[in-house]
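Milestone 3.1: sequence recovery, worked example.
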């Protein structure tokens, strides 16, 4: 099944560490790496760590019903709850909440407002009632909680994932830049850190969070719980725009083709949602339950691939993408990347061939969304896998070039072998002299394939 998903268009596989054992994840990593070897194409693996899950305690009967306007107490007492109270085992919430603070239970289905706060309990008014059962989640959209983004479980999961060579770490429930900095320190360059933007607090410090992250995910599930629904599309556009300006990959995720969990085709609204993410400028779109637990996983990937492909062939998409192009980075590398895209368009090049050690040259070219595809030539398989997340990039692992002449020869040969250009067609080659040094993109060549 994983091979079928890959053949249908998946470039990166996400492992959700909220579920499954390390043995389960190790088996799936082995499957993906075996597929990578047999297909000859780099495949990315994203380890999505759970983060600090906040939950209430249990009820004597397993479930209660809260009525609008009634009082409900959240306290530290571990005994089973009832319709008047339940355990709140997170002292950080008790410490941070104040009168007027909003608490959301069970993915926002129930809404409480704090009336009185004490060090050992919160007395709340039920604003939106309903059924409430054991261990349901708690969201606190109004305040920053003094809790780390990585729990002890996350640290163990992160250590396992890094040992097994994952390419990306999805950091859940980011609240502040320090959360990303902590994960970066642990990863120590072994994987890219993907900041999942799913809390309003992260939006309040968005620039600082994104500056530290290698990539970002618009995680619309929890973001849609803590933000009013009408604010989520605007947040998505803001995050995508900010990441494109930085030349870093951004993923739009959650409920994109939700109905395909149980149906072989999406709703028209879902197709439009995927299309909107493409028009916003996302590097990647992600499926969750559709492929993890759905009845039609291959059909969901195929449908998403078809929507993305169709949108990017549209003249309006190209017009809007060009109009939204951020200004060139004020550096030699940024100027060369921007020039490569402009030259490629002017001469009708079939590909932009980017020699890159760290992946940064390919990311800079990707930032400008050139008309032809980007072929990134790298010496490190780990870099090739990470570039699977970047828009328009086809990474190929090869030996390092020994100079611009060698780069031209190697680039034209591989462009022909990979099916990007035929004899007589033009490609644009970019790289840095001396080759093999990260951050030295300073050369551009227009070449006719022999």
């Amino acid at each position: 099944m994983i091979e079928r998903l890959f053949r249908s268009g998946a470039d990166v596989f996400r492992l959700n560490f909220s579920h499954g054992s390390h043995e389960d994840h190790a088996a799936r990593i082995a499957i993906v790496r075996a597929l990578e070897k047999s297909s000859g194409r780099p495949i990315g693996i994203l380890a999505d760590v759970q983060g600090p899950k906040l939950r209430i305690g249990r009820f004597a009967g397993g479930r209660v019903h809260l009525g609008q306007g009634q009082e409900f107490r959240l306290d530290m007492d571990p005994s089973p709850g009832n319709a008047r109270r339940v355990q709140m085992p997170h002292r950080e919430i008790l410490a941070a909440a104040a009168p007027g603070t909003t608490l959301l239970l069970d993915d926002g289905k129930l809404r409480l407002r704090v009336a009185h706060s004490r060090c050992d309990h919160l007395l709340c008014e039920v604003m939106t009632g309903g059924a409430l059962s054991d261990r349901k989640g708690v969201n606190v959209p109004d305040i920053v909680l003094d809790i780390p983004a990585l729990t002890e479980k996350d640290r163990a999961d992160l250590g396992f994932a890094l040992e097994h060579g994952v390419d990306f770490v999805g950091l859940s429930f980011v609240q502040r830049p320090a959360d990303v900095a902590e994960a970066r320190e642990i990863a120590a360059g072994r994987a890219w850190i993907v900041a999942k933007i799913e809390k309003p607090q992260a939006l309040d410090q968005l620039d600082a969070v994104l500056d530290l992250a290698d990539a970002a995910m618009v995680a619309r599930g929890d973001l849609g719980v803590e933000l009013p629904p009408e604010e989520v599309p605007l947040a998505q556009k803001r995050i995508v725009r900010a990441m494109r300006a930085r030349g870093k990959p951004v993923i739009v995720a959650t409920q994109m083709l939700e109905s395909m969990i149980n149906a072989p085709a999406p709703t028209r609204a879902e197709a439009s949602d995927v299309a909107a993410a493409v028009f916003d400028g996302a590097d990647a779109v992600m499926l969750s339950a559709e492929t993890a637990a759905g009845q039609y996983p291959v059909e969901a990937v195929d449908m998403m691939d078809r929507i993305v492909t169709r949108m990017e062939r549209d003249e309006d998409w190209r017009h809007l993408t060009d109009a939204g192009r951020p200004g060139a980075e004020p550096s030699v590398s940024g100027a060369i990347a921007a020039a490569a895209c402009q030259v490629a368009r002017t001469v009708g090049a079939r590909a932009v061939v980017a020699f890159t050690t760290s992946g940064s040259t390919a990311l800079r070219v990707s930032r400008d969304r050139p008309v032809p595809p980007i072929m990134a030539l790298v010496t490190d398989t780990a870099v090739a896998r990470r570039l699977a997340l970047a828009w328009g990039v086809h990474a190929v692992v090869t030996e390092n070039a020994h100079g611009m002449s060698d780069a031209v020869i190697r680039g034209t040969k591989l462009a022909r072998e990979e099916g990007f250009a035929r004899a007589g067609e033009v490609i644009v080659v970019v790289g840095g002299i001396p080759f093999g040094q990260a951050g030295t993109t300073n050369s551009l060549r227009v070449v006719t394939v022999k």
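The two ends are 40 Å apart (CA to CA). DSSP finds 17 helices and 20 strands in the chain.
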